[in-house]
Amino acid sequence: MGIEYESVVDHPLDEVFAWHTRPGAMARLVPPWQPMTVVSETDSLADGQAVLGLPGGLRWIAKHDRDSFDPPHRFADVLSSAGPRSLPPRVIGWWRHTHKFSEAPGGRTTVRDEVDTTVPGAALRPTFVYRHRQLADDLAAHRDAASAGARPMVVAVTGAAGLVGSAFTALLTTGGHRVIRLVRRPACTKDERHWRPDAPASDLLSGVDAVVHLAGASIAGRFTKAHKAAIRDSRIEPTRMLARAAADSDDGPKVFVSASAIGIYGYDRGDALLCEDSMRGDGFLADLVADWEAATGPAADAGLRVVAVRTGIVQAAAGGTLRLLRPLFLAGLGGRMGSGRQWLSWIGLDDLLDVYYRALYDNRLTGPVNAVGPAPVRNVDYTKALADVLHRPALVPVPSFGPRLLLGAQGARELAEADQRVVPTKLAELGHRFRHETVSDALAHQLGHG
């Protein structure tokens, strides 16, 4: 029982092992389709322990074995117990995971995972396919940054606990960067600072190299007057105040990166190819995004390099539309939306992280940047790709009244039925490398069917 899985990554042995020792490594390796979250990472691969959260408040305790610790060649962890919530997972019997690393020709590294457990290898294989690809792709992202001259940075991040923020902070810390989380509650650690969106402290951004502003109320929901006000209130003034704090800080950031959205292009653009220079469209979201981006003005006026990351429809198993669609398609109830002819401009979660990362270190990137995959698809093709990845049919069209019941007429029009063919022109001009060139590849990676 168990599994042995091996691959070769195009990075030196010491670099590969060091990646595993840094904060964020475990978060980057936990597959997003599994009902598991990182509660705490180990402080030592020699004799520390990591805690993973399971449904129902249960805990998986991974205890590291000192006798197996041989840097940079090996470390191991075993399933352990620490309190009653960690006892139920032990019904699987036993679990011992040995991580091995050895030099491969050409300055590369062979990564080998050996798991001795009662769990069948077939059930474990998707996890290790995912882990090995994440490792290789993340190391490549850090190599790209180093090749561009990036040095270890101190990055302040709002919205660090969200879907994108938690993944992005983990990516940064595995690259040796320090993340300062700007939180609205009282700060609890040296890497947190209390942030009042309406009145940031004068020293909030002291000693920070760059700001990544991700905070904002979810756009999903019925477009009621109250919901639209909450969306605007959580974005416009907080962005303006944070940009002003960045501008006024004597030893503060030189780069200000803010979330944005492709909603600026409007909801009904047909077959028109939309690049960063395209005219803005109509609708609530178009007005919102225009004001949102304008709110970064104080930072730009002070000479900071400002980047607005216009994000497409993020493909992430743990959140967003994919989290909602997956159970429907697994049940055989998925299908195209309306006619299915509308364009969907998607981006894989990890590709979105790479865009934010590049925005930090690439001085050529400024102003609005379309964070979308290189090949937008029509809704009918997206649903076929998702159905194929999940090995299910896509035979049940979603009638237009369905989204309207959930989102209201305006919400359905601007979210579920939006027709936007957006392309990443600025990124393409820089030769940006995408992890996922097709939506099928992005879906397969996120859902464990790679």
Features:
450 residues; 7-stranded antiparallel β-sheet; 20 strands; 7-stranded parallel β-sheet; alpha/beta
Q: Which SSEs are present, and which pair or pack?
A:
Elements: E1 3-9, H1 13-21, H2 25-29, E2 37-40, E3 49-53, E4 59-64, E5 74-80, E6 95-104, E7 108-117, H3 121-147, E8 154-158, H4 163-174, E9 178-183, E10 192-194, E11 210-213, H5 225-233, H6 236-248, E12 255-261, E13 268-274, H7 284-294, H8 297-301, E14 305-311, E15 313-315, H9 320-330, E16 343-344, E17 346-348, H10 349-361, E18 367-371, E19 377-378, H11 379-390, H12 401-416, E20 419-422, H13 425-429, H14 439-447
Parallel strand pairs: 8-9, 8-11, 9-10, 11-12, 12-14, 13-20, 14-18, 15-17
Antiparallel strand pairs: 1-7, 2-3, 3-4, 4-5, 5-6, 6-7, 16-19
Helix pairs in contact: 4-10, 6-7, 11-14
| Beta-strand segment tally | 20
Strand line-up in the sheet with most strands:
1-7-6-5-4-3-2
The gross shape turns out to be globular
Mean pLDDT: 95
In percent, how helical is the residue content? 25-40%
How large is the share of residues in beta strands? 15-25%
Strand pairing plus helix content: what structural class? Answer: alpha/beta
Give a quick account of the main beta sheet: strands, pairing sense, barrel closure.
7 strands, antiparallel
- Spatial gap, N to C terminus: 22 Å
Tally of contiguous helical segments = 14
State the low-pLDDT regions, or none. none
Radius of gyration: 22 Å
